[in-house]
Amino acid sequence: MSSTTLASALIVPRLRAFLERLEPLAYLLLRIGFGLTLMTHGVPKLLGRSHGSMADPMAASTNLIANVLQLPGAPLIAWAVALLEGVGGLMLALGLLSRLVAPLVLVQMLVICYLLGPTYPWIDRGIEYPVVLALLAFYIACRGSGHGALDAR
Known about the structure:
This protein is about 75% helix and about 0% strand. With about 150 residues, the protein is mainly alpha-helical. The protein starts with a helix and ends in a 10-residue tail after the last helix. The model has no long low-confidence stretch (mean pLDDT about 90).
């Protein structure tokens, strides 16, 4: 047996066992990070606070929905998005009704991808960020809240 094969035979099974023990923690951190990321977009809209370069993110969202995307009912859609991102993000971080909230986020991200696509490079308002969030939402929808969630209690 070569030294490379011997090392693989000794290290890989131990590494796999170690990583398998960490998997519940990894998923917990993924779900919390995903929820908190969503909250950073929704809470400023709901509280009327500045967010990054936007002095009024709710007004900016309403403007985008009404004037760029030309969708009817822009203020109502903007509030629904803010609630989903703010309150839904908190629910996901806490592991509360994740199988209900995550599919809603998945739909939101797919709509964003459709409306902003097909541009992929994010320097040109690309869709990489919503694509990754859509995949995470899909995974959480399929898996549920998992370890350390309020749903588990």
